[in-house]
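Weekly sync, protein design subgroup
Attendees: M.S., D.O., the rotation student, P.L. (late)

Item 1: inverse folding check
M.S. brought a backbone from last month's batch and wanted to see whether the design step gives back something sensible before we order anything. D.O. pointed out we never logged the input encoding, so this time it goes straight into the notes. Structure tokens as presented (119 positions):
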């Protein structure tokens, strides 16, 4: 059974940094593209960043370009999201998701980790 477990979310001041981690199990990790999504209260879930299975291609939402960085370590079955220059509008539950090669959608999701940016 595929499991994705996020960690690293917490309360941080505006301008601060956080690194989220997502540990995957029950799958062949390098057969999956991985993504980060977020959902703020009262809003729909939105795309944040994605990385292909090899790390060769990376994509970001315009709202986080230049501030967030996605990476992966296939030897550790993990994907990361480094978040810098955090803003209050980055406050959300952050989800890790996996998309098997050849699939059109992200079929595997973690439970989420809360990030709160506030002074």
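Designed sequence read out in the meeting:
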């Amino acid at each position: 059974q595929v499991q994705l477990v996020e960690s690293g979310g917490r309360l941080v001041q505006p301008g601060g940094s956080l690194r989220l981690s997502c540990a995957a199990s029950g799958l062949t990790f390098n057969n999956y593209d991985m993504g980060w999504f977020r959902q703020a209260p009262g809003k729909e879930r939105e795309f944040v960043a994605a990385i292909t299975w090899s790390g060769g291609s990376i994509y970001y939402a315009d709202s986080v370009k230049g501030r967030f960085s996605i990476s992966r370590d296939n030897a550790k079955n993990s994907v990361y999201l480094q978040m810098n220059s955090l803003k209050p509008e980055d406050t959300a539950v952050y989800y890790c998701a996996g998309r098997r090669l050849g699939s059109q959608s992200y079929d595997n999701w973690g439970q989420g980790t809360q990030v709160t940016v506030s002074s």
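Discussion: The first strand starts at residue 3 and ends at 7. DSSP finds no helices and eleven strands in the chain.
Action: P.L. to compare against the previous round before Friday.
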